[in-house]
Amino acid sequence: MRPFREHTGIVAPLDRSSIDTDQIIPKQFLKRIERTGYGEFLFFDWRYTGDGKPRADFVLNQPQFAGASILIAGKNFGCGSSREHAAWALSDYGFRVIIAPSFADIFATNAGNNGLLLVRLPEQQISTLLDHAGQIPCYKLHVSLLDKRVQDDQGFGARFDIDEFRRTCLLEGLDEIGLTLKHESEVAAYESRIANRAW
Most CB atoms closer than 10 Å: which of 30, 102, 139, 158? Predict the structure, then answer.
């Protein structure tokens, strides 16, 4: 997993609450066995019409948000089914940070295991960021996991809290497999003892 320490990127505002995982990546695109290739289908039903044409009014189809790597959204982001593909789709599209007032628990775990930083901020601050992103062309934020801080060059700044275990995993680029491999020598020693035990 790619470590996360600091990131500066263009912000895309998605002013909706309770965005569920079926909207993030609809079920018909869950047939792949890889973690890549989902980005083009992110928010598919919102991005495209029934005949596959881009909807001009959807935020990710608007030129000023091209290359956005930070997404601002409403509360309860990632609710619905537990599909890990939602985190894969967001990451594959290019998002590194999702900022919202709250996140669904299972989605939060999946996001952390895939290198996505989830930043929780109060709704008033989210409203400010949504306004900035909607009004300032190519609006950017700097997000530091080292300092646990979000700021822009317009005078906005806010600190955020994050579970220290998750913070450490992100800083070191460790998913669950990576965490296990940190104890590889201990696991090998245990396996050796078990193999040599007389039953």
Answer: 139
Number of H helices, E strands in the chain: 8, 7
DSSP state letters, 121-157 = --HHHHHHHHHHHHHSTT-EEEEETTTTEEE-TTS-E
- Residue 116 has which token pair? 């996505």
In contact, 115 and 1? CB cutoff 8 Å: yes
3-state secondary structure of 117: strand
CA dist., res. 119 & res. 112, Å (int): 11
User: Do 122 and 101 contact (CB within 8 A), yes or no?
Assistant: yes
Is 35 inside any structural domain? yes
Residue 187 within a domain:
no
Residue 44's pLDDT is 97
Asked if pLDDT for residue 189 goes beyond 90, the answer is no
Strand 140-144 to strand 6-14: parallel, antiparallel, or no bridges (unpaired)? antiparallel
Query: What is the number of structural domains in the chain?
Result: 1
pLDDT, tens digit (0-9, with 9 covering 90-100), for 1-37: 889 999 999 999 999 999 999 999 999 999 888 889 9
Decide if 13 is inside a domain.
yes
Length of the chain: 199
Domain hosting 152: range is 6-174
Tokens found for residue 19: 């965005």
Say what the pLDDT of residue 164 is.
95
Residue type for position 118: L
